[in-house]
Amino acid sequence: MQELNTVIDLLYEGGTPMQSLNISEKEAIALVEDKAPHKPWCVVKNWIWVDLDLSPDNKAVMQQAGHSPVMLYAHSVINDSRSRFRTGD
After folding, report:
1. Are 73 and 11 in contact (CB under 8 A)?
2. Which pLDDT value is given to residue 9?
3. How far apart are CA 70 and CA 50, in angstroms?
4. Is residue 68 a contact partner of residue 59, using CB atoms and an 8 Å limit?
5. Does the pLDDT value for residue 61 go beyond 80?
6. Residue 66: left (phi > 0), alpha (psi -120 to 50), or beta?
7. Parallel, antiparallel, or unpaired: how do β-strands 70-80 and 42-51 relate?
8. How far is 60 from 17, CA to CA, in rounded Å?
9. How confident is the model over 11-25, as pLDDT tens digits?
10. In the predicted model, is pLDDT for residue 64 greater than 90?
11. What pLDDT is stored for residue 25 in this prediction?
């Protein structure tokens, strides 16, 4: 039960606010298509950024692959370029 409460706290309790852009959906799509024109994108709202706690070995593997040990969890999808998720998912 403690693990479930930990997950609930992670997803729904307040965290440290991060600065974000206050732009429209169309502006967000134009921005990402300009910066990474051939990559899929997903516009979301009510999201949280999670820093993953990895072992040094696992962190090194991720960094060597060009990834950061973080996860973005979105409570709501607005638009997805490849229709992987529906609006509201």
Report:
1. yes
2. 82
3. 6
4. no
5. yes
6. left
7. antiparallel
8. 27
9. 888 788 888 788 999
10. yes
11. 92
Supply the Cα-derived Rg of the chain in whole angstroms. 16
d(CA 61, CA 17): 29
Q: What are the structure tokens assigned to 76, written together?
A: 């709501």
For 78, the token pair is 């607005």
Structure tokens that stand for 31 in this block: 């921005």
Mean pLDDT of 16-36: 90
Give domain limits for the chain: 38-89
pLDDT value of position 57? 96
Give the confidence band of 54 by pLDDT, cuts at 50, 70, 90. Answer: very high
The residue with tokens 């962190």 is 59
Which amino acid is it at 37?
P
Task: Pull the structure tokens for residue 77.
Answer: 């999808």
The residue-averaged pLDDT of 12-41 equals: 89
Q: Which string of b and e fits 7-45 if b means at least 16 CB within 10 Å?
A: eeeeeeeeeeeeeeeeeeeeebbeebeeeeeeeebbbbe
